[in-house]
Amino acid sequence: MAHAQGHIRDEFYEIIDKIHSDDKWLNSKKNQEQTRRYIGLMWNCTDIIPSIMHDDLADIASLLLTGDPAINYDRGKYKIGNCAQVARLLREILEDPRGGK
Mapping DSSP to helix (H, G, I), strand (E, B) and coil, where does residue 39 land? Predict the structure, then answer.
């Protein structure tokens, strides 16, 4: 496991923010490719996700994996603590038909 360079980590956080701000953002093939690229870059990153992003990530998972923002995503399924864990969550969202396909 390793740390990501600051600018790469910041761009990863920006992608998370874009997905949280616009649930249709992943409908674009270009945005899916960008997200996949950063998933690969962050796959083994042990950098800690800022706590302020935890609720945003749970919201993203609830909406994009269940299709209903009112359904709470099972937060126990994924530990959202570091970038590698978030990369795995984003991969699942992209592979889910309601997510980024």
Answer: helix
